[in-house]
Write a structure and sequence with these properties.
Layout lengths: L4 E5 L5 H16 L5 H6 L2 H13 L10 E7 L3 E10 L9 E8 L8 H15 L5 E6 L3 H9 L3 E2 L4 E5 L2 E10 L2 H10 L2
Parallel strand pairs: 4-5
Antiparallel strand pairs: 1-2, 2-3, 3-4, 5-8, 6-8, 7-8
């Protein structure tokens, strides 16, 4: 039986547990997109270093303007996370960006993803950001469906990404109006 999902700000004390969760989520999200042998060799240590850098240097280079949230199940512990802050691409018109968003597959449909996005949107709006972009690998049907369900629209851009010799395409979805997204999340649409 599943517990209650709560959202809270991630602290440096969470890094070790987050690294393990990140590995599991990354494998689930990219199964069929990245080769299985690559996914199998991913270790928590790499993600632990990434999370440590997030707290010291930031994802965008501005850690004071970023926030990281975790979704915790009252019985199962951490089940998802989101990182957000200013857009890393000044050439795009979007002010905010979701850098990372993952929820364990067995928690899908329980509201953890929506609650994480709601926390990120509230954080960004308090910083007077009015638009948002999120990038993910093409072929990630779960991300496509989730973002479209929240009213995001695809942006006609793409980025080629190479991971361990594997060529991937990263695509963005965006919200032009964070107030409208926040209203949608509050209404439960």
């Amino acid at each position: 039986m599943a517990g209650v999902i709560n959202i809270r700000v991630i602290t440096p004390a969470d890094i070790s547990g987050l690294a393990g969760l990140h590995v599991r989520c990354f494998r689930e999200a990219n199964r069929g997109i990245l080769p299985g042998d690559y996914l199998a060799k991913i270790k928590a240590g790499g993600f632990q270093g990434e999370w440590e850098r997030s707290f010291t240097q930031g994802v965008s280079g501005e850690p004071a303007f970023e926030r990281h949230f975790v979704a915790e199940d009252s019985r199962a512990g951490m089940v998802g996370f989101i990182s957000t802050g200013p857009s890393r691409d000044a050439q795009l018109k979007y002010e905010g960006e979701i850098y990372r968003l993952h929820v364990l597959a067995d928690c899908a449909g329980r509201g953890a993803g929506r609650s994480l996005v709601a926390a990120a949107v509230e954080f960004l709006r308090k910083r007077r950001m009015n638009s948002l972009i999120a990038w993910f690998f093409d072929g990630n049907a779960g991300a496509h469906n989730f973002f479209e369900h929240l009213g995001a629209v695809p942006v006609k851009l793409k980025r080629d990404v190479v991971i361990d010799g594997n060529k991937l395409v990263s695509i963005p979805y965006a919200w032009e109006d964070l107030k409208a997204l926040q209203d949608r999340l509050i209404a439960g649409d």
